[in-house]
């Protein structure tokens, strides 16, 4: 019985003394977690470019890949207002909503 008690006490000490290591996150991952992406409203024309649909922004003369090709295909060739978050690294808009404008 004493041996069992010593084994359990030793195991308890090992678990309480061993430091717990946290997984280190990369600085860019920490920055993304700390900086919430803001929803933006962009307008332009939806055009097909290869396998993707792209919003050609009139105001900034830039183009952004639309992440939802199914929704974007309904607006091909039309002027739209797109609400979403812009992923600058991939130049992609994560679309929240599309709306045709005149």
Beta-strand content estimate: 35-45%
Can you summarize the main beta sheet? Answer: 5 strands, mixed, barrel
Backbone structural class: alpha+beta
Q: What is the level 1 CATH name of the domain at 40-100?
A: Mainly Beta
Could you say which overall geometry the principal axes of the C-alpha atoms support? elongated
Spatial strand sequence of the major β-sheet: 1-2-3-5-4
Euclidean distance between termini CA atoms? 85 Å
Number of strands: 5
Which regions are unreliable across 5 or more consecutive residues at pLDDT < 50? 13-23
Number of helices: 3
* CATH topological fold name of the domain at 40-100: OB fold (Dihydrolipoamide Acetyltransferase, E2P)
User: What string gives the helices and strands in order?
Assistant: HHEEEHEE
What level of helicity do the residues show?
Answer: 25-40%
Mean pLDDT: 77
Using the CA coordinates, give the radius of gyration.
26 Å
The CATH architecture term of the domain at 40-100 is Beta Barrel
Brief synopsis:
The protein contains three helices and five strands. It is α+β, with helices and mostly antiparallel strands.
């Amino acid at each position: 019985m004493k041996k069992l008690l010593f084994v359990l006490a030793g195991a308890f000490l090992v678990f309480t003394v061993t430091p717990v290591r946290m997984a280190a996150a990369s600085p860019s991952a920490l920055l993304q977690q700390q900086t919430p992406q803001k929803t933006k409203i962009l307008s332009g024309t939806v055009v097909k470019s290869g396998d993707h649909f792209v919003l050609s922004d009139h105001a900034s003369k830039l183009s952004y890949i639309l992440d939802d090709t199914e929704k974007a295909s309904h607006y091909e060739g039309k002027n739209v207002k797109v609400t979403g978050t812009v992923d600058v690294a991939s130049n992609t808009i994560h679309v929240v909503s599309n709306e045709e404008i005149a």
